Amino acid sequence: MERLLQYVFDGLSFGAIYALLALGLVVVFRGTGHLNFAQGEMAMFCTFIVWQINDWGVPLILAVAIGMLFGFALGAGAEATVIRSVAKKSPGGVFVVSIALFLGLNSLATMIWDRAEGYTMKSLFPNKDVDFVRILGAEWRYKYIGVLIVALALMGLLFLLFSKTKFGLAMRSVASNPESARLVGVPSGLVLASSWGIAAAMGALSGALVGGINGQLTPSLMFAVFIYASAAATLGGLDSPGGAVIAGLSIGIGEQLVAGYAPGWIGQDLKLSVALILIFVVLLVKPSGLFGSLKVERV
Amino acid sequence: MSLLQTTGLRASYGQVDVLLGIDIEVNQGEMVVILGANGAGKTTTMRAVSGTIPRSGSIVFDGHEIVTQNAESIVRLGIAHVPQGRGTFSDLTVEENLRIGAYIRKDSVESDIERWFETFPRLGERKSQKAGSLSGGEQQMLAIARALMSRPRLLLCDEPSLGLAPLVTQELFGVLKSLNQQEGLSVLLVEQNANLALKIANKVYLLETGQVVASGDAESIAGDERIRRAYLGG
Ligand SMILES: Nc1ncnc2c1ncn2[C@@H]1O[C@H](COP(=O)(O)OP(=O)(O)OP(=O)(O)O)[C@@H](O)[C@H]1O
Ligand SMILES: [Mg+2]
Q1: Model confidence pLDDT, tens digit, residues A185-203
Q2: Would the CB atoms of A182 and B72 count as touching at under 8 Å?
Q3: Residues B61 and B77 sit within 8 Å (Cβ to Cβ)
Q4: Would you say residue A117 lies in a domain?
């Protein structure tokens, strides 16, 4: 029982991080119909920015905020320059560009922050050995609770933005019918650039949270996280923010359970494959994902 | 007073020239109808005016040359376009469709929403329903109401009767007519059904392969022998 609860606690926090990154994928996909394969690497790069600024003496929380702003600029800038012009000429080209962005950011980070053993990343939350509460015998570490709260809060804000604000409505209108959105005066370029920006800013936060949990920062920071996040986005249905969150949390818990209970040979190394197999199975059985929308359209 | 005046309006899709120099005028408070066969260039004319396709020549709206402006700025000047095939936002609710229709406005839009729900009660009953699940007639009403949410001075309406039952078409034209006569809304309407068009129009333009081949007030067009034969079936 304690063990089970422990896995659930840890899983929830990791899951919240996957959900954040998955939400970024969903925001971009809904806006433009593209999968941004560079989402994880953009997050990694922003996390290095956070580390760098923090290393220069700026308090971590402020550094994270600046990192998120940097992420917004990076995402919005990428969309407004390369992505948009490529998408006009060939939709398939966006795939290539996002792969190029992936590789480019990875090499750039490796070049700038070249210490082979990586860098020490501080956590936003109390992180000493004694910093935990005990609930029914399981330890819930403060840093995991903090991650969960911050991630859920940001998701809450995002949902409010989407459902309650004029800008959110404009974003959904562009996703639904770009031509009509232009006809009612929505500046679709601005909206699309902002979706990429918001996605990248959420990525920056998820990167900083992962870095804080790991305590260590290398250019491969987001590899596994991105794969879990992609699994979450696919599982939830690529156009469903709620689905991405539920799927992200489930995958986080599932990952801990697999690592904890499965026979040793599955253990740490094969649990990534479990996530990938999950993507395949869902796509086979239900191509639109668990919560993806079947479009209702009558003409 | 002239509200909209196109002069030598040309447009093409890639290499294919579709509008070969169109001169159309809509005066303040007028209901002007564009008639023409399939492929004549009616939709292209509307798109050229609302700025959704590249075009050349001159389009003067309310004293402004708008041929170089894009769709986003043109709607701000007071032209709302109901595209052929309605172009509603199928993933948004009926009410959200109306709200986004008022995107360019900074003032409160609640009373306008109320108003269109009164004009089209069927929309009011379905305000939380996704627009994609409405019937064709309801979607057309929604498309028109959404366009009017921007409080335009000129409404471009592209074949609103397409695929609608005669009764629904009548209801819709009744609304357009009263907006035009009671509130002085200027309307540029594309319509294939000539009988219907002539009943409602002040002025008619007949388009053939990208050119205006006849124009005049509704009576003189109705009396024109060529038009009777080609469009009125007699
Ligand atoms: N997106 C497009 N790309 C290429 N050609 C087009 C496009 N849209 C229209 N055309 C061509 O331009 C010509 C005029 O089309 P348009 O849609 O303006 O006609 P229309 O008068 O509105 O016809 P309908 O009554 O069928 O709606 C047609 O020959 C059509 O094939
Ligand atoms: Mg047409």
Answers
A1: 999 899 999 999 999 999 9
A2: yes
A3: yes
A4: yes
